[in-house]
Write a structure and sequence with these properties.
Layout: E1 3-7, H1 11-22, E2 26-31, H2 37-45, E3 50-52, H3 57-60, E4 65-68, H4 77-84, E5 88-90, H5 92-97, E6 103-108, H6 113-126, E7 131-135, H7 141-147, E8 152-156, H8 159-163, E9 172-175, H9 190-198, E10 209-212, H10 217-225, E11 231-236, E12 244-247, E13 251-256, E14 259-264, H11 273-288, H12 293-302, E15 311-316, E16 319-323, H13 330-338, E17 344-348, H14 361-367, E18 368-374, H15 379-385, E19 391-395, H16 398-408, E20 414-417, H17 430-443
Helix pairs in contact: 1-7, 6-11, 6-12, 11-12, 16-17
């Protein structure tokens, strides 16, 4: 019996352990941190041995195959030991994909991937397709492969998950856009991060499709030195596209094999130019999957925005409060500020990931009246904007940040939580940060 070791006991790790057990592996799960009670219960009920608060080396390096959760750093000593022994290390998506015949649709990018993945899933459900939502979102892909019987999986994929693939081959792959993110995990080299993202198409062949954004600078650079065997379908806000999608400021056009879906931009549920691009990309996936235009249109019109992504919370005394906690990099904040139509009190800060704030300066000058720093180390933010915005306040808790923002706000302003940073200095994750924001706003 082959030995499968799962590193990380969160949603993806426990899902991989369950699928491993079902497929006849001898499974062991190890987590350096503490396991949540609900996950422990599942492992115990399924008689899967596990450990927490440690990685016992001898129980790990005798594996035939290791499934690494995205949260386990590539540079962790246990990973280095496994590599020295040439033991196969895969992500949960690589593992789960081996055990399903469903059609795989994989979506990545620096920004908008949760929104676009959820939008594609919404289109499939509206059309009555049996589809699962997984990857970086929803229930673990492996867990669903073990227990469900879907015809399609719509997968949101991170660069960390793509780092550890070998044969993962989606029928439809989509790269939305690229901007520097997680550079601390890629030796502070943007190209390494870009290369990780494009692994999404490395195993595709002539029968598969690759959807991409030619307006994106790094995507253009990647295509100068690389190719993919998949059929290319671009989407653009700038140029007319023959096969793919484009917009002309009034309408979007999604064209596949001379069949065109046309729709007014004003009818789209999601606002902002980046969401016009996301909607076009989702439309291409829908048409490739033979979904009728009426279902695609209806879905693009009635889709509800993702929680923690430009999510309207409340209006208090004429001040709008918007939760964009999922904006964990500079480019996400760029899109958020771009879509703001009123003066902004901007709550920013957290764990820096190698951010360069220079590209935000023009928007901040034009739209931001006050900056509220929310983090343990705000030096970089202070230095970047001290000559741009006169009012900059430092806070160490969400309560203080929200109260300060409310104090500086006046009727017609928008308080925008769009941190540009990871959340781990003060919060469990970006969801925790967003929920705390909403709680404090409701207390005002």
């Amino acid at each position: 019996m082959k030995r499968l070791v799962v590193l990380g006991g969160g949603e993806s790790g426990v899902g991989a352990a369950l699928l491993g057990k079902k497929e006849g592996f001898e499974v062991f799960l190890s987590d350096k941190g503490e396991l949540k009670e609900n996950y422990k219960k599942v492992l115990i009920e399924n008689a899967i041995p596990f450990e927490e608060k440690q990685h016992t080396e001898e129980k790990i390096i005798n594996a035939d195959w290791v499934i690494k959760s995205p949260g386990v750093p590539k540079k962790a000593p246990v990973i280095q030991k496994l590599k020295e022994r040439n033991i196969r290390i895969s992500s949960e998506i690589e593992f789960a994909a081996q055990y399903t015949d469903a059609t795989l649709i994989a979506i990545t990018g620096s920004n908008g991937k949760t929104t676009t993945t959820s939008l594609v899933y919404h289109i499939f459900r509206k059309a009555g397709y049996k589809a699962g939502l997984a990857g970086n979102i929803g229930r673990s892909f492996a867990w669903q492969v073990a227990e469900e019987n879907f015809d399609y999986y719509i997968l949101e994929i991170s660069s960390f998950q793509l780092d550890d693939i070998q044969s993962f081959k989606p029928h439809i792959a989509l790269v939305l856009n690229l901007s520097p993110d997680h550079l601390d995990q890629y030796d502070y080299t943007y190209q390494n991060y870009v290369d990780a993202k494009f692994k999404i198409t490395q195993n595709q062949d002539e029968n598969d499709y690759f959807i991409y954004n030619p307006d994106d600078e790094m995507t253009g650079k990647w295509f100068k030195d690389h190719t993919t065997k998949a059929r290319l379908l671009p989407f653009s806000l700038k140029e007319k596209i023959e096969d793919g999608a484009y917009s002309d400021n009034e309408n979007i056009y999604v064209k596949i094999n001379r069949d065109t879906l046309e729709m007014k931009i004003g009818e789209l549920a999601l606002s902002g130019s980046h969401n016009v691009a996301n909607s076009m990309a989702a439309g291409i996936v829908g048409k490739l999957s033979k979904i009728k235009n009426e279902f695609i249109k209806q879905s693009l019109m009635d889709f509800e925005a993702v929680e923690h992504r430009l999510e309207f919370v409340l209006k208090i005394n004429g001040i709008n409060f918007i939760n964009d906690s999922k904006a964990t990099n500079v480019n996400s904040v760029y899109y958020a500020l771009e879509s703001m139509k009123t003066p902004v009190i901007w709550i920013v800060g957290g764990t820096d990931k190698g951010n360069d704030y220079a590209e935000l300066v023009p928007f901040v000058k034009q739209k931001v009246k006050t900056i509220i720093c929310l983090g343990l180390d705000n030096e970089k933010i202070l230095n970047s904007f001290k000559d741009v915005v006169s009012d900059i306040v430092e806070t160490r808790s969400m309560k203080d940040a929200v109260n300060a923002a409310y104090t500086f706000g006046s009727k017609g302003d928008t308080v925008l939580l769009s941190p540009a940073c990871a959340s781990f200095d003060l919060f469990e994750n970006y969801e925790d940060r967003g929920k705390q924001f909403k709680e404090e706003v409701r207390k005002l």
